[in-house]
Amino acid sequence: MKKSFLALPFVFAACAATAQAEPTDLGAGFSLSGNAAIVSDYRFRGYSQTDFRPAVQVGFDLAHSSGFYLGNWNSNVSSFVFTDGNLEMDFYGGWKGDVGGGLGLDVGVLHYYYPGSSSPKGGNYNNTDLYVGLSYANYSLKYSYTPSDFFSAPDTKGTWYLDGTATFDLGDGWGLVGHLGYQKLKKQVDMDGDGIGHYVDYKLGVTKDLKGWVVGLAAVGATKDNWLPTKYGHPSGRLGAVFSVSRAF
């Protein structure tokens, strides 16, 4: 039986661009860094997670000189999207480093968790993705695969996502960021009951570094914007502007 996307919320990936900060040296090859942001709308793969309302987001990363890392990232979300839940907590770990010729490799696992939420399968909404990413200069490409049901929606095992991002330094603290993603879904329908197996999401934005504070403005959307409705019935993947203020520490 096909499942409505009302039971399949989206998460992660803030629209803010965060400035680089020097990590805190903990000794023995370990370092700790953090980031915080306020965004006018939390979008994940093109879709709003907050009913087009603001979000406060904060994350921490523990890294080792060998390339291994662990991290946690958190954001408020809509309890309409994640029934009875208003907090997203992401936990991830992996390895990243230079594999030669300026090519960077990043492999790991990411777990999404929503305390207090009520999923269609019972218990809290959750999801686990395995990912592998490549980067070269200012370009990156990442593949994410869900080995179990996608965000607690039954019969969605094997859903995957491929996305590419490019950033450009325009000088004097200005930056340009572009993103394009392809989402392949299992057994999903849109708000009108039509079958949907894939879509493309996109983002184009500018950033300005103001002494460590990064201000951003981006246009974000999805080609099939009516996959996930908001509380008021609006397509949450519709094209919209997202404003952000962020800082690394």
UniProtKB/TrEMBL annotation:
Chaperone listed as a keyword: no
What are the boundaries of the signal sequence?
1-21
Highest taxon listed in the record's lineage: Bacteria
Keywords from the UniProt entry: Signal
Q: InterPro entries this protein is in?
A: CHP02001 (IPR010239)
Name listed for the protein in its UniProt record: N-acetyltransferase YedL
Q: Which organism is it from?
A: Bordetella genomosp. 5
Q: What is the lineage of its organism?
A: Bacteria, Pseudomonadati, Pseudomonadota, Betaproteobacteria, Burkholderiales
